[in-house]
Task: inverse folding
């Protein structure tokens, strides 16, 4: 018997948010109940060595970055960390395959699955996607236009999106997006999560998803996927473990409902 979903942390006509562990909620959701899943899980990365990766996230993901022209950017003002970012490589693969397998069950046939990752976890993420039974179809590159400079190495200014579908891509949208997605990362006072993605980036990813459908994000963070879903006329279901960020999500969703489409990267 499938576990019952708990009372939502936030709910309105456009969005539902649960404050809970992602796997617990995913295991409680019915089969084939969402049209798209777009998510940004904790990468368990942020360093080349085990000791680097196990640092608190507020230490791993803050600091100075450079713009494309080499000029410095102010450090983010987001200081609240998040959990689940310290798994080793084997643990990350097993954990990813577990939650992605639940996503495959929940996702409608032909539905879109898109997950963010960095260069260190890209091979592991593509393995997990396929182990979960999803059909891996492409990798998109997110060019942030800003990255940490490291002497004698390529500047780290890109992340990746692993794109898959649940079985055959039976109803593709009439869109032809580039595999290089250029959207500036929120910075300074505009950034409210340490690893926040821009709303416009997720909106572009959603052009591949069924219009007017239901979008799920099991790792909602500050709610960017939810804002993008609502801005594009879709219903949103999210899960966030952190009390702080669940409250941030709720505030952003309420503001979007009150004001209509909204780019809340500029809202604190």
Result:
């Amino acid at each position: 018997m499938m576990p019952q979903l708990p009372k939502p942390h936030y709910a309105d006509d456009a969005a539902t948010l649960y404050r809970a562990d992602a796997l617990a909620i995913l295991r409680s959701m019915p089969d084939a109940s969402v049209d798209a899943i777009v998510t940004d899980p904790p990468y368990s990365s942020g360093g080349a060595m085990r000791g680097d990766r196990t640092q608190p996230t507020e230490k791993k993901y803050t600091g100075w970055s450079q713009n494309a022209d080499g000029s410095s950017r102010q450090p983010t003002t987001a200081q609240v960390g998040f959990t689940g970012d310290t798994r080793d490589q084997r643990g990350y693969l097993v954990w990813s395959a577990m939650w992605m397998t639940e996503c495959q069950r929940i996702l409608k046939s032909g539905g879109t699955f898109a997950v963010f990752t960095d260069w260190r976890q890209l091979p592991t993420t593509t393995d997990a996607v396929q182990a979960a039974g999803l059909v891996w179809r492409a990798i998109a590159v997110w060019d942030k236009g800003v990255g940490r400079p490291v002497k004698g190495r390529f500047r780290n200014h890109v992340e990746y999106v692993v794109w898959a579908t649940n079985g055959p891509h039976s109803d593709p949208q009439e869109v032809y997006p580039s595999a290089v997605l250029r959207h500036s990362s929120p910075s300074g006072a505009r950034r409210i999560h340490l690893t926040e993605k821009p709303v416009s980036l997720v909106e572009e990813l959603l052009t591949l998803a069924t219009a007017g459908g239901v979008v799920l994000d099991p790792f909602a963070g500050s709610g960017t996927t939810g804002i993008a879903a609502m801005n594009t006329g879709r219903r949103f279901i999210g899960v966030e473990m952190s009390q702080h960020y669940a409250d941030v999500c709720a505030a952003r969703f309420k503001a979007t409902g009150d004001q209509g489409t909204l780019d809340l990267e500029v809202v604190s």
